[in-house]
Amino acid sequence: MTGGAEYTLRLGDDALVLAQRLSEWSARAPDLEEDLALTNIALDLLGQARALLSRAAELEGAGRDEDDLAYLRGEREFRNALIVEQPNGDFARTIARQLLFSSYQLGLYDRLCDSTDDVLAGVAAKAVKEVAYHRDHATEWTLRLGDGTEESHRRMQDAVDWTWPLAAELFEHDALAEQLVREEIAVDARELRPAWEHYVGGVLAEATLERPDTAYAPSGGRRGEHSEALGHMLAVMQSVHRSHPGATW
Amino acid sequence: MSELWEVFVRSRRGLAHQHVGSLHAPDARMALRNARDVYTRREEGVSIWVVPARAITASSPDEKDAFFDPAGDKPYRHPTFYDVPDGVPHL
Predict the structure, then answer these.
(1) What CATH number did the domain enclosing B44 receive?
(2) Which residue from A6, A47, A151, A204 has the fewest beta carbons nearer than 10 Å?
């Protein structure tokens, strides 16, 4: 797989896996309004995933399509970051994950709008408005849960503490990305971190939450080394396609 | 904690906001966001109002006769007795 395909797959898998996780809230959210909000976000991400996986398949040039990539790869072939594959946990943990990830993704897409890869630039330009809303939604909930009741504050702080170390992987940079940065296709993710820290730190402070201070930074998703959670999630996500290959509505 | 909000959406610039339904939200900012997610998913609007349902004073069904029936036999209030001259467009 070429560098461009691999990089595009990373972005597409982040969107696809988080879309699947968020859609697990369907009919289970705290109320109907939140049910729609979370599944709307899931659908936005799924739309991004489709465009990105199609592009990855095109760049790969091996005759695969978006469905092959989504439904017929094993977990070691997925290139998403660990943060998006984690189980939803309670509502606070879902919100913490969304705040940290959407804040990263917004910065990323904002920069990718200038990519020399026209498809990446196009996807980013469309998605940047969607993700601005995802971040806003997570921000509003973080403020209310953090600065809410004693219990909501405790659970939101737990959620942030638990999720925080997983965010570090999003800002990793490697040789593959470096090559694409030189071709002005990709973004050096390390450069996104200061603005991310500034935004997320501001939200946590306003929400009366403490910014975790930890050096723990699990990694490996970009190389296909995932947590146990991803295999179980993929089994559900891929079961229909694997049971009925090529089925259409 | 959650209260009921009535949602009004303006579908296009120049038109009036129309009542589209209600929803639950803890406060006005969240009510706006919920309204966006519940009622404008299919390009229904360009502007949203949310109003706490408790802020609305409704006419009572018990007063229906006194309120509305007297208008029933006053057709002269409808502008149907005027001849529209030829050549007057958009009327």
Answers:
(1) 3.10.20.520
(2) A151
Look at the alpha carbons of A186, A190, A192, A196 in this order and tell me if their dihedral is positive or negative: positive
Range of A149's domain? Answer: 3-212+219-243
A149 in a domain, yes or no? Answer: yes
Give the helix ranges, DSSP H, for chain A: 3-23, 32-60, 66-71, 82-85, 91-112, 118-146, 150-167, 175-182, 193-206, 228-243
Distance of alpha carbon A175 from alpha carbon A163, whole angstroms: 26
Give yes or no for residue B59 having a pLDDT over 70. yes
| Minimal C-alpha gap between A33 and chain B (Å) | 6
Structural domain contains residue A248:
no
In a domain? residue B90? no
- What per-residue confidence (pLDDT) applies to A207? 98
Rounded to whole angstroms, how far apart are CA atoms A112 and A114?
5
How close is the nearest chain B Cα to the Cα of A36, in Å? 6
B37/A136 CB distance under 8 A = no
Contact A144 B30 (CB under 8 A): yes
For residue range A145-196, what is the model confidence (pLDDT) as tens digits?
Answer: 999 999 999 999 999 999 999 999 999 999 999 999 999 999 999 999 999 9
- Domain with residue A208: its CATH number is 1.20.1260.10
| Global ipTM | 0.79
Nearest CA in chain B to A137: B33
Span A54-108, pLDDT tens digits: 999 999 999 999 999 999 999 999 999 999 999 999 999 999 999 999 999 999 9
Is B34 among the domain residues? yes
